[in-house]
Amino acid sequence: MKHRRLRALIRKEFLQILRDPSAIAIAFVMPAFLLFLFGYGVSLDARHVPVAVVVEQPDRDTEAFAAGLAQSPYFEPQRFTDMTAASAALQQRQVEGILWLRQDFSRHLLRGETAPFSIIVNGVDANSARLLEGYLQGVWQNWLQQRARSSGVPFVVPAVSTERIWFNPALRSRNYLVPGLIAVIMTLIGALLTAMVVAREWERGTMEALMATPVTLTEILLGKLLPYFLMGMGGMALTVALALTLFAVPLVGSLWTLSLSSALFLLVALGMGLLISTLARNQFVAGQLAVIVTFLPAFMLSGFIFDIGSMPAPVQLVTHVVAARYFVSILQTVFLAGDLWPVLLVNSAALAFMATIFLGLTWRLSRKRLD
């Protein structure tokens, strides 16, 4: 390998990028667009949920309970006079739950007994149903405590818990999702940068001209890898900057750790793209393969939305070959917990192994010939 030829290949690649800026769009425009789309479109927070409130016998206690519900940021209560109208609203998805305070609610409270009320939630979305039920139970407990303090009666509970939330004290799902989104987006972007661009060269015939020159196969691969590695790191820097400024995700760990792990992961993604371009020399086929092989597994099996531990055992085994799984773990750790080296080193070693495999397969399967 001669450094002069390698520099010429890298210069040629940058000139080609300037003449055909589709690679710039893939590296910078697409990550920003996807981060906007998924960052604002995907959320696990249940806020301002419409809830029907049915009070059969309004009085001071029921009004105080309903007022506590209205003060919560999680609900938008809607008053109904009877259960028939509230049930119809739930069936038509106008509300997501029903809080039913029955006629003898206040009478049981005055006697010091358990007051009857019912919570009915829409269980089509099981996750939202569990969140809604838990929020309603929380409003009920807070109201009981406030009522006991106002009446001078001690509120006795069998056990008292002390809660402390580590790593994400605000309980913002965006702090958890956005780092995972960065991994999923960069998986697709890294693969597309090399897969589409190299396939386009095969279609246009410029790769054939390159094969006729004295350059070696290693120089060709490095000439393709290095320019798009720099562009991919630029796209990564853009997404991290958007995550910190636009989505206000905290970065607890060091920037150097984030940069090194991102560079390692980008080698894996670019290696997958080079391998795809080696197998498919058509832009359409290369693009389809990049989406199917990289984006979909990263989205479904990386753990950035769906917990890997809750998946069936065979699917959990499949996740070990998904590079985004390890990068999602690294990003969420660096952003929210800091530089926890037992986690970072294991996942970085897995990425280094996968980068060696993909780049090695690309070099092994590539031939400096047209067949």
- How much helical structure, as a percent, in the residues? 55-70%
Give me the secondary-structure category: alpha/beta
Q: Which spans of ≥5 residues are poorly predicted at pLDDT below 50? A: none
Mean pLDDT reading: 84
What is the count of helical runs? 14
Distance between the termini: 24 Å
What number of domains?
2
Describe the structure.
By secondary structure, this protein is α/β, with parallel strands linked by helices. Helix content is about 65%, strand content about 5%. It is built from 14 helices and four strands. It has helices at about 5-20, 20-40, 60-70, 85-90, 105-110, 125-150, 175-205, 205-210, 215-245, 255-280, 285-300, 315-320, 325-335, 340-365; strands spanning about 50-55, 75-80, 95-100, 115-120. Strand 1 (about 50-55), helix 3 (about 60-70) and strand 2 form a beta-alpha-beta unit. Helix 13 (about 325-335) packs antiparallel against helix 14 (about 340-365). The mean pLDDT is about 85.
Give me a quick take on this structure:
By secondary structure, the protein is an alpha/beta fold. Helices cover 67% and strands 6% of the residues.
Feature tags:
371 residues, alpha/beta, abc type-2 transporter like fold, 2 domains, four-stranded mixed β-sheet
What is this structure's SSE topology?
Layout: H1 3-19, H2 22-41, E1 49-55, H3 60-71, E2 75-80, H4 83-91, E3 97-101, H5 105-110, E4 117-121, H6 126-151, H7 173-204, H8 206-211, H9 217-245, H10 255-279, H11 283-301, H12 313-319, H13 323-337, H14 341-365
Helix pairs in contact: 1-9, 2-7, 2-9, 3-6, 7-9, 7-10, 7-11, 7-13, 9-10, 10-11, 10-13, 10-14, 13-14
